[in-house]
Design goal:
Elements: E1 3-6, E2 12-18, E3 21-28, H1 38-50, E4 52-57, H2 74-87, E5 93-98, H3 100-112, E6 116-122, H4 128-131, H5 135-142, E7 147-149, E8 158-160, H6 162-169, E9 184-189, H7 198-206, E10 212-217, H8 227-242
Parallel strand pairs: 3-4, 3-5, 5-6, 6-9, 9-10
Antiparallel strand pairs: 1-2, 2-4, 7-8
Helix pairs in contact: 2-3
Length: 243
């Protein structure tokens, strides 16, 4: 059942919570994605079958949450997710971040400290505001304008707003040590045309944790939504749940 949490801004954030045991599995969708996606639904179905607690959510401006997407940013979403976690009294969690959600996952891990038991990144995309755009596009952002790119997953072009890009540039992680010491599992397709798989290798090196594993899927694309890809994800969650 979809529920709504009223944020300090007054906007309502949509979420779905499945009670259960162990650290709560928190799924963080990618850019312009929401909790209706196949990976999120597979994760909550797995959790319910195993009796494990799980939280799905829609960032404000997306899905069933309120707000104007053009006004949103990673730091804002980080703070809103923390507000939801606090309201639900979630003190121990496994963060699962897909694409941009993998960047947000890292920001949350540093902010929440020992409340985060483990991280699972699916084609994680930290710092994509830096490596994901060329000089001409960055010049467009610098003028306060929006960049539109072809969308391989739908008919409408994908917008990136100058406000989002500028905030992302203040949240870069890969050039420094990322302060997280728990288990980290990164899953990346080597046929990913959106987020190069070497980003996961760079992320593994940047993480302070010694318990980092990178699982490369040679023919996996960015979505990692095939049954075989999702089986890898659920296998990692199962192993982390037994730890």
């Amino acid at each position: 059942m979809i529920q709504h949490f009223t944020l300090p801004s007054g906007e309502r954030m949509a979420y779905r919570f499945a009670p259960g045991t162990g650290p709560v599995i928190v799924f963080l969708p990618g850019y312009m994605s929401d909790m209706s996606g196949g990976k999120a639904q597979a994760v909550i179905a797995y959790a319910e079958a195993k009796g494990r607690a799980c939280l799905l959510l829609d960032y404000t401006g997306l899905g069933q949450s309120e707000g104007d997407f053009a006004e949103k940013s990673l730091p804002l979403w980080r703070d809103e997710v923390i507000a939801l976690l606090d309201a639900l009294a979630i003190e121990s969690m496994i963060l699962v971040g897909s694409s941009m959600g993998g960047w947000l996952m890292l920001m949350l891990a540093e902010a929440l400290g020992n409340r985060v038991a483990a991280l699972v990144g699916l084609a994680p995309a930290p710092d994509f505001s830096e490596w994901g755009f060329d000089a001409a596009q960055k010049a467009v952002f610098a003028r306060g304008e929006t960049v539109y790119e072809d969308n391989p997953y739908g008919p409408e072009p994908t917008p990136t707003y100058a406000k989002f890009w500028a905030a992302g540039q203040e949240c870069l992680l890969l050039a420094r040590s990322i302060a997280f010491d728990g288990p980290v599992r990164l899953i990346h397709g080597q046929a990913d045309r959106d987020v190069p798989w070497d980003i996961s290798i760079r992320l593994a090196a940047a993480l302070r944790s010694a318990d980092v594993q990178v699982h490369l899927i040679k023919d996996g694309d960015h979505r990692l939504s095939r049954r075989s890809d999702i089986a890898v994800l659920l296998g990692q969650l199962n192993t982390l749940g037994e730890a």
